Structures are given as structure tokens and as C-alpha cells.
């Protein structure tokens, strides 16, 4: 069984200041299937560099604007900005095993394969040729195929030279590219499809700089980009982030401290027992790396890594961060079951966790939460309309599902703005450990996000 995410253009929305709102990313579904969603995206600055109707073949590297090694987030971000060229995008995956299966993107005659991996990168480009396809295929500036000029076996040989194979073979293979043939008679066999893959099997070009993120509960993380960059909570400054990662794609003021109140309010209290002032807390959003950093008074105090699991409310808000947690000589990642985290991480869930009969609605710590975009003046004294007022956490009397453990908090993101009417999405669970909080998707069992909070041993 596969699920599909369908993109249409009439839902492309920007606010008056041209800011992208990820919390509006999921919009009402079509009526044909519970796994079809209308989706929109921000406009990528790379979206206008190439045309989708003319694709330049680069064996082992890419086809047109599609580059092997690009992340799923990057590719979808570009495709959704093509309002006229790509009126429909379909993303397919296995909804019952979304965190461990491949993702396929269909955009017209082009199919893009992202195998199940920690990096979620483009590994195969497949394009269908024929008179029905409105595209031109070029190689080193020369036209190989177009609507009026079909590519044949002889045409491939003239452009790329000889290769191994026999007359009548259904496929011509070169390093980094393969041509599928339909028999028409010897040299006039027609090329019906082209496949672009790495020159060396399993070796993808590195496009994005973040190769790995090693999380350290209560301490921070080590980012490999590819050199090691240490993020030490309570020490790393906003200036350090600018030097090592560049400016964030977006910043967002933190005005919602409900998660802190539930999971770790002790560390935010001052010496007199009063709650600390969080008015100077601002999230730095690095969507392309799948990371958020909470900067308070110029110092990083929290980080969140996202897994970009299809079918979850946060899908396509962030790229998949290649995060791991090293513990007891094993690596835990987004595919690890919750039981592995319980076994290998020290510390039980904080005592402040809600009782098992509670069902809490808590907004995310990412850019979809209640807050103010950085650069806009906060005015807390003015009255708010119902649509402007921040959503408050609510506790209902309905019981949590029977399979929710007593130390888990139920997180229902489907009530957040922009998700009204979306079907096929379940809730998730927040489970806390010493210096770490994991968000577990109920349906797939994958880890949707991981939050590392500052554990001050001197406090």
C-alpha cells in the first residue's frame, strides 16, 4: 500500500511580508483518497535557474535542475515553486512504514527515487521519452530527443560513443546513465526512457553540507559539514551559529513555554524561585539542515532535529536531519524503536509528565508554534482577535489510547492552524529522557523529532 501527496498551485500562500508559514503547509485533502494532500511551498531562489521542458543530461550527476544527492526537501521546495510548469506533484510512500521505506516523486514525465536512508537523498532520476512528452533532452548542448525528434539506439551511440552490449539488447548502459529501448529494428530501436544514477553504485554526490549530526543529551551536538562543529548548549552563541552555519532561513520569537512548564521548568527558574523571563528567546530555523536552535540572550539553550517522515504533520517543513544519538556503543536514529531509547538512555521521564488519562494538545517548538517572526515588534498589550490569539494547551477528560505508556505525553498536531480537514494523520507521543525528548509517530513508530535541552549540572 502506498500513500500519495498531491500538490496543486491554488494553495500557494504567502503573508503580506512574503514570509513562508510552514504551519499552513497541510491543507484540505482531495476526496479521492485519505492519503492525498494538497500542499504548498515557499519559493526557492534556485527555482528559476533551469527550465523543466529542457533537461540537460549529466551522466552520474543529474538531469536538468535535478541533481543526484539533493535532499527530498530541497527537490520538493523547487518543484512546488513551478506554478505553470508542474501543475501536479505526486509523492508516494508506504504509510504503515513511512520511516523505513523509499519515497518516489512524480513530476510529469520525471520520476525521482529517494531510497530509505538516514539522509533522504535523490539516488535515481527516471524520465519517460516520447511524442506525448513536452520536453527536450540535451547532452553537452546538443539535442538528443524532443517531441519532433525521437532518440534511437544509433543516436545514443553517436552522442556517447560505444558501450558494452549486443544488438537488440533492451538497454544501453554507460557510467551514470542507462537508456531503455523499445524494439523497432536494430539501430532504429527507440529510446523510451532514460535513467540517471551514480557512477559508482551507492555513492551519491554530496550536495548539502550537513553529513551527520551527533546529538548529545543535555549537552548539545556535533555537526559534520563536513568538518566538525561543536554546538554546546549554554555556551555556543548566536555569533557562532552565523560563522559556522550562516544566517538562518527564518527566525521566530518564542512566546509559548508550555513544553518547558511540563518537561523541565526547574532549569528556567531563577534563584528566587520565579520563572525565568523567556521574552528574549528566539528560534533560529535552518530548514535545509532539519534543525532549530533556541537562542536566549544570545546563547543557544536548546536544539531540535527533524526526521521529515512522510505522512506526519511536519513533513516537508524541514529537510531530514541525519541525526544519531550514540549510547552504549550503539547508534540510535529515527528508525530506532522507542524501546531502544528506553533501554540505552539514562533517566526516566520527568515527574512533571501528565497522568496517562490526560490528552494534551501542545504546539510544536518549530516555526509552526505560536510566536512572532523575528524583526516584527511584539505588542502584548493590544487586544487580539480569535484568529490572532495564541492557542492554549488544553486537557480533556477523554482517555489516551490504551497503548500509550504512562510516561508519554500525547501530542496532537492536527489541531494546529492549517491542518483542519486533513485526514490520515495520527497523533504522536512525547517521551522524555535525561537531557532529551523524543517525538514518536503513532502510526509508523518512527521518531519524528528529537529535542536536546540544556542540562545545567551546576544548577
UniProtKB/TrEMBL annotation:
Q: How far does the signal peptide extend, from start to end residue?
A: none
Q: Name one GO biological process term.
A: Golgi to plasma membrane protein transport
The scientific name of the source species is Vanrija pseudolonga
Coiled-coil spans are none
Q: Name one GO cellular component term.
A: trans-Golgi network
Protein name (database record): Uncharacterized protein
Q: Map out region (Disordered) in residue numbers.
A: 1-41, 346-405
User: Belongs to which family?
Assistant: Belongs to the PHAF1 family.
Which InterPro entries does the entry link to?
A: PHAF1, PHAF1/BROMI
- In this chain, composition skew of type Low complexity spans 389-405
Amino acid at each position: 500500500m502506498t500513500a500519495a501527496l498531491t500538490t496543486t498551485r491554488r494553495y500557494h500562500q504567502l503573508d503580506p511580508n512574503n514570509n513562508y508559514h510552514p504551519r499552513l503547509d497541510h491543507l484540505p485533502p482531495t476526496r479521492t483518497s485519505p492519503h492525498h494532500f494538497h500542499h504548498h511551498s515557499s519559493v526557492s531562489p534556485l527555482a528559476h535557474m533551469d527550465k523543466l521542458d529542457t533537461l540537460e543530461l549529466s551522466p552520474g550527476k543529474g538531469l536538468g535542475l535535478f541533481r543526484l544527492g539533493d535532499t527530498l526537501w530541497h527537490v520538493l521546495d523547487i518543484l512546488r515553486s513551478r506554478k505553470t510548469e508542474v501543475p501536479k506533484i505526486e509523492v508516494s510512500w508506504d504509510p504503515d512504514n513511512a520511516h523505513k521505506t523509499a519515497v518516489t516523486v512524480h513530476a510529469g514525465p520525471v520520476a525521482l527515487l529517494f531510497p530509505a536512508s538516514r539522509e533522504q537523498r535523490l539516488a535515481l532520476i527516471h524520465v519517460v521519452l516520447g511524442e506525448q512528452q513536452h520536453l527536450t533532452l540535451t547532452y553537452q548542448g546538443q539535442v538528443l530527443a524532443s517531441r519532433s525528434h525521437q532518440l534511437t539506439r544509433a543516436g545514443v551511440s553517436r552522442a556517447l560513443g560505444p558501450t558494452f552490449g549486443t544488438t537488440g539488447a533492451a538497454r544501453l548502459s554507460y557510467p551514470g546513465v542507462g537508456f531503455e529501448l523499445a524494439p523497432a529494428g536494430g539501430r532504429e530501436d527507440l529510446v523510451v526512457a532514460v535513467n540517471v544514477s551514480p557512477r559508482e553504485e551507492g555513492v551519491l554526490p554530496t550536495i548539502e553540507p550537513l553529513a551527520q549530526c551527533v546529538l548529545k543529551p543535555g549537552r548539545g551536538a556535533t555537526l559534520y559539514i563536513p568538518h566538525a562543529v561543536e554546538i554546546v548548549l549554554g555556551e555556543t552563541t548566536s555569533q557562532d551559529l552565523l560563522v559556522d552555519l550562516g544566517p538562518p532561513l527564518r527566525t521566530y520569537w518564542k512566546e509559548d513555554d508550555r513544553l518547558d512548564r511540563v518537561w523541565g521548568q526547574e532549569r528556567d527558574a531563577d534563584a528566587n524561585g520565579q520563572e525565568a523571563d523567556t521574552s528574549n528567546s528566539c528560534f533560529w530555523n535552518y530548514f535545509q539542515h532539519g534543525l532549530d536552535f533556541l537562542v536566549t540572550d544570545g546563547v543557544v539553550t536548546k536544539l531540535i532535529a527533524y526526521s521529515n517522515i512522510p505522512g506526519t504533520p511536519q513533513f516537508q517543513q524541514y529537510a531530514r536531519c541525519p541525526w544519531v544519538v550514540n549510547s552504549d556503543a550503539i547508534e540510535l536514529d529515527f528508525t530506532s524503536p522507542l524501546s531502544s531509547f528506553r533501554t540505552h538512555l539514562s533517566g526516566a521521564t520527568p515527574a512533571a509528565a501528565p497522568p496517562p488519562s490526560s490528552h494534551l494538545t501542545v504546539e510544536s517548538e518549530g516555526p509552526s508554534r505560536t510566536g512572532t517572526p523575528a524583526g516584527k515588534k511584539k505588542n502584548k498589550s493590544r487586544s487580539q482577535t480569535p484568529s490572532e490569539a495564541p492557542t492554549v494547551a488544553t486537557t480533556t477528560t477523554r482517555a489516551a489510547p490504551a497503548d500509550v505508556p504512562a510516561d508519554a505525553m500525547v501530542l496532537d498536531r492536527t489541531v494546529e492552524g492549517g491542518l483542519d480537514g486533513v485526514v490520515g494523520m495520527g497523533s504522536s507521543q512525547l517521551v522524555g529522557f535525561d537531557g532529551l525528548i523524543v517525538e514518536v509517530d503513532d502510526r509508523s513508530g518512527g521518531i519524528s523529532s528529537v529535542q536536546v535541552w540544556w542540562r545545567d549540572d551546576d544548577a
